[in-house]
Amino acid sequence: MNHFLTINDISQAQILELIALGKQLKKDYQPHSQALAGKSIVTLFEKPSLRTRVSFDIGINKLGGHSLYLDQQNGALGERESVKDFALNLSRWCDGIVARVFSHRSLEQLAEYATVPVVNSLSDLYHPCQGMADFMTLSEHHHDLSKVALGYVGDGNNVTHSLMIAAAKLGAKMVVVCPPGCFPDGAVVQQCQQLAKQHGGELLLSNEVSALEGVDCLYADTWVSMGDDTPLAQVKQKFMPYQINQQLLDQTGATSVLHCQPAHREYEISSEVMDGPQSLIFDQAENRMHIQNAILLTLLKD
């Protein structure tokens, strides 16, 4: 691993190694408390954040490192100065770059010109740290991830892409249920179907919630992606049949529920389910920090 831009860049073995390391860190940080001593990580944010910013900042501190937050008050990345120059300058000062950006192309350019590792903390195409945290959370309840059936319901987006890639590489089953016209990117779907075939997994897409019957876990995300100013009320009629609620849990037989947050309660998920016994949502949020630290340790271990 030189960078971490998408789960597609790492192997099944590396996914499992990162999850194992994340679980070790969650149990005890003491052996790694000075692993990043003397190292500084720039965390760059073009978009607002709660979980990503806090989990990286505190997580880096737990490893003995220093986190420097950069917002984009001067405009989007590449406007005030080129992404190339941005990467070349930062590389002279810091030991790693964590970037949450609008365009995945910005991350690719950062990785192309930076001489330090670059981590994707969210782009328009992928959210790999989230996907890794999600499968770490599932691994806490399922010994063999290849036996897991994950059901994603709602709007196909960057989170869906990362989940599909991880599930396919792990040989798991994933069912993606979206309203017509809201499916994930077709090229990513084709890529994931091929990966699933190689690893013994399965990827199914449908606009019928009945396709979710038999999944182990239901997963939701917001119906309106970050940066889209469409009012939730405007899409409610289209998406309401896809809400995760107790009725859907009973119908599918799912034993757990995930949501990457921020959650809009009573829209994509009911409070009854979000606060209920099947919810792993706040474990999932905590695990963002542990898996991200596993990624940073792996990238910076030399």
Automatic annotation (TrEMBL):
Main localisation: cytoplasm
Top enzyme category: transferase
Domain Aspartate/ornithine carbamoyltransferase carbamoyl-P binding: start-end pairs: 3-140
Record EC number: 2.1.3.3
Record pathway: Amino-acid biosynthesis; L-arginine biosynthesis; L-arginine from L-ornithine and carbamoyl phosphate: step 1/3
Keyword Translocase attributed: no
Gene Ontology cellular component annotations, sorted alphabetically: cytoplasm
HAMAP family for the chain: OTCase (MF_01109)
Record-given protein name: Ornithine carbamoyltransferase
Species this protein is from: Ferrimonas lipolytica
